[in-house]
Write a structure and sequence with these properties.
The complex is a heterodimer of chains A (218) and B (542).
Chain A (H helix, E strand, L loop, with lengths): L2 E5 L3 H24 L8 H29 L12 H9 L20 H26 L4 H4 L7 H25 L8 H8 L1 E5 L18
Antiparallel strand pairs in A: 1-2
Helix pairs in contact in A: 1-2, 4-6
Chain B lengths: L1 H26 L35 H11 L3 H7 L1 H4 L2 E2 L6 E2 L16 H4 L24 H4 L20 E2 L7 E2 L4 H5 L7 H8 L37 H4 L2 E2 L2 E2 L26 H5 L7 H6 L5 H5 L10 E6 L14 E3 L5 E4 L3 E6 L5 E5 L3 E3 L12 E2 L1 E3 L9 E15 L4 E2 L12 H4 L2 H12 L8 E10 L13 H4 L23 H32 L1
Parallel strand pairs in B: 7-15, 13-17
Antiparallel strand pairs in B: 1-2, 3-4, 5-6, 7-10, 8-9, 9-10, 11-15, 12-14, 15-16, 15-17
The chains are: A mainly alpha (218), B alpha+beta (542).
Chain lengths: 218, 542
């Protein structure tokens, strides 16, 4: 198969993705230990590691938000219902008949409509749930000083945080599975490592500029 | 391109340095973990040499003679002591207003002082309390030496109402061992500040013997290794009792019935408010480098983590005392006494069954400092186990913290008709005392008659519990409880019985776990099915 390559994931984006992946995996493992699901590192080490990972990811996110806005990449997350049905049809039927993927990645549009919806749900719902409850959990000892000790209960906060953890873990497994749905099993993962995605011939024009220009200016 | 890469590196490097310095800053907080003043374990030099005072040349034949000599100079001391609980054995609970103290409170060890005075008052800070008509206003009967002897040779003997020996005596009777009386003159000339031996003579032997009552107070504290008690060990802070249990004009600070269950003041040595020192009095409110641990102190007493077990000094404490089995005789017709392999008396015809414990894990309870102590005259509910000193507190009580306790299990006589505990006459050379006649019928009747309390003539035994908070025998920090000791789903978790709080690692919501678990299984399952379907259809296609 001959293919063109487009530079789709920039260096910072790839750093963000993989550091975030590592931190989330650490937080899943330590988080469910703190939840009491198993004993692995010991409660203290699990809490310490979970906390350090959370702060590290928050710092990375601060940089990432800055990056998203300065590069205009935030537009990649604007949802659209257009072609969603085509995507669903592809994943439920087309993929098994080796029909072509209905979406062509470009530097301007690197997420397919389903991805856009999924990431928006992650950003707009699961993230605030986890970060909000997580920060409250982390600062439980300061609730009285903050004047919120009557507003929240540790149990409520812990349950919301746990619910968020279950959701992101479910997301994680689906996300990892979907990386195998490229034209080869590891195509998507390779692209996220190298930044270069192989795109089939007939859509060469989309990749003509090799993705070097910021999407906002395209 | 290269320049660009460098830029990113700098950004990331900068972020990491920022984070690292934030964490390091928290760890290096100056002052954290340091004590303000190293308390002196050694005795301060006195400005007076008592051996040179002509008043103390003696010779002294009795305790009260020594006291008269002391009071010749210390002319306020007698009256001060006579106001103290060490003398009155009576106090009004500052929290409940109830009249308590040894004279009135019920316990599940020896029982009541009444009718047993000469034995019990061997720990009275006075002389001659032989019966209920004792004169509490005679200052010559104050015992100065019990607290101020520094020679460790002054001993109030067990049966003489607070007096030491004045003549050589064979003890125990028939043993052939003759005990010599202490040299009161020498002792009087060497008085000084109270040390561990002085306080310990009574407080280490509460309940009738070494380690019997408290669990965290026994003779191992006279010279404990550091792993037994970091504060009292000569290798540790080397503190003596009075360094924390401060006195003011012979009044001991604090009250058993109004403990400071949650100190919000922090550093306050020396005390102005005449309250007993707390951990926080020296260690302040946030002594850990780790803020998360400091936050725990809001709901946990320091003792809960830092005294993982009590009775750690090699002396077993009594954990059960069952009076109901008392009075058995052996095949020879003599009162029965049985010892276990460790030499502990596990059955006594005089006292019933005993159980002992060493390195005992405490029982944990909410406690706000208020104790509901049962008095001997109180009406009791005999339909369930009687808690003689219920401690107050719950998760919703902001003044309560979780404290460690020794819970003493007891079974003791009571009046099932009048629903009161009873006075049991155990000690005395007469035909009713239980420790000689082994007849509850007679001994309880005699005790109640003596006390002037109503008695139906019927007695039974009721199971009782008593809570003794654990606050001594603080372990080195390495031996403190670990997170997992409480934050665990194990039924063996230290706080498994404290169910009115949400504890991470222990508690969860069944629905959240069920639905969440299904979501994860669903995600993995959907991926697997989809993937297998892809593999199968691909094969078909080719």
């Amino acid at each position: 198969m001959s293919a063109n390559r487009i530079y789709i994931y920039k260096r910072y984006e790839r750093f963000w993705h993989w550091s975030q992946a590592l931190l989330i995996i650490i937080m899943m493992i330590t988080g469910f230990e703190i939840h009491g699901s198993y004993t692995f590192l010991g409660f203290k080490k699990a809490v310490d590691l979970h906390t350090i990972a959370a702060w590290t990811l928050l710092v990375i996110w601060a940089f990432t938000i800055f990056w998203q806005f300065t590069t205009g990449e935030w537009r990649q997350y604007i949802p659209s219902m257009k072609n969603v049905s085509a995507m669903i049809l592809y994943y439920t039927v087309g993929i098994f008949k080796e029909m072509p993927h209905p979406f062509r990645k470009t530097t301007v549009q690197k997420h397919n409509p389903l991805q856009r919806l999924a990431y928006l749900a992650l950003l707009a719902f699961i993230s605030p749930l986890i970060w909000g409850s997580g920060l409250l959990y982390l600062f439980y000892g300061n609730w009285a000083q903050l004047g919120i000790d009557k507003t929240f209960s540790l149990e409520g906060v812990a349950l919301v945080h746990t619910a968020g953890a279950f959701m992101i873990t479910a997301f994680f497994f689906i996300h990892v599975y979907l990386t195998t749905t490229g034209h080869t099993i590891f195509a998507h993962i390779k692209a996220m490592i190298t930044g270069w995605e192989e795109v089939e011939d007939d859509h060469a024009p989309a990749a003509a500029d090799h993705g070097k220009r910021a999407p906002g200016k395209a | 391109m290269d320049k660009n890469r460098c830029g990113w590196r700098r950004w990331i490097g900068g972020a990491l340095i920022l984070m690292a310095s934030m964490m390091a800053g928290a760890a290096n907080d100056p002052g954290a973990g340091k004590l303000p003043v190293a308390a002196a374990g050694g005795k301060a030099a006195s400005t007076a040499d008592h051996s040179k005072f002509k008043e103390l040349q003696g010779p002294f034949k009795t305790g009260p003679e020594v006291t008269k000599a002391c009071l010749a100079c210390h002319n306020e001391a007698g009256h001060q002591v006579m106001k103290s609980v060490h003398w009155t054995w009576e106090t009004i609970s500052p929290t409940t207003g109830k009249k308590l103290g040894k004279q009135h409170a019920a316990n599940n060890f020896c029982g009541s002082i009444l009718s047993n005075e000469p034995r019990c008052t061997s720990c009275h800070a006075g002389y001659g309390w032989t019966d209920k008509n004792y004169d509490f206003t005679n200052q010559d009967n104050v015992d100065c030496l019990a607290c101020h002897d520094t020679t460790a040779t002054y001993k109030k003997i067990a049966t003489d109402a607070g007096h030491p020996l004045y003549e050589p005596r064979e003890m125990p009777k028939g043993s052939g061992k003759v005990v010599q009386p202490p040299d009161l003159t020498k002792i009087a000339q060497a008085v000084g500040k109270p040390g561990r031996q002085n306080c310990g003579a009574c407080h280490f032997n509460g309940g009738g013997g070494d380690a019997v009552k408290h669990g965290d107070l026994d003779t191992s504290l006279i010279k404990p290794p550091k792993h037994v008690d970091v504060h009292m060990s000569p290798d540790g802070a080397n503190l003596s009792c009075a360094d924390c249990h401060t006195f003011n004009a012979h009044q001991p600070s604090g009250s058993r019935y109004a403990a400071t269950a949650k100190d919000t003041k922090g550093l306050d040595m020396k005390h102005e408010d005449h309250n007993r020192a707390t951990c926080e009095s020296c260690h302040d409110l946030r002594p850990h480098k780790n803020e998360r641990l400091n936050n725990h102190a809001n709901r946990l007493a320091c003792q809960t983590c830092h005294i993982p077990e009590f009775a750690r000094g090699g002396v077993a404490t009594k954990t059960l005392w069952d009076w109901s089995t008392g009075g058995k005789r052996g095949p020879d017709g003599k009162p029965l006494f049985i010892k276990d392999d460790h030499g502990h008396l596990i059955y006594s015809a005089e006292k019933g069954d005993f159980k002992y414990g060493e390195n005992v894990r405490p029982t944990y309870k909410w406690y706000n400092g208020v104790v509901h102590q049962v008095a001997i005259t109180d009406k009791i509910d005999d339909s369930k186990i009687l808690e003689l000193n219920r401690v107050e507190g719950s998760a919703s009580d902001p003044n309560a913290r979780i404290w460690p306790f020794k819970v003493m299990v007891g079974k003791q006589p009571y009046d099932p008709v009048n629903k009161t505990l009873v006075v049991n006459h155990v000690y005395g050379k007469d035909d009713t005392a239980f420790w000689g006649n082994f007849d509850y019928e007679k001994s309880i009747k005699a005790g109640m008659d003596y006390a002037g309390l109503p008695y139906s003539g019927k007695f039974d035994f009721i199971e009782t519990r008593m809570n003794w908070f654990i606050t001594h025998m603080v372990a080195p920090k390495e031996d403190a409880l670990k997170c997992n000791d409480c934050h665990t789903r194990s039924e063996d978790g230290r706080l498994a019985a404290i169910t009115d709080i949400y504890m991470p690692g222990r508690d969860r919501n069944g629905w959240v776990d069920l639905l969440g678990g299904l979501a994860i299984i669903g995600a993995i399952g959907a991926g697997s099915v989809h993937g297998i379907a892809r593999i199968l259809t691909r094969r078909k296609g080719h």
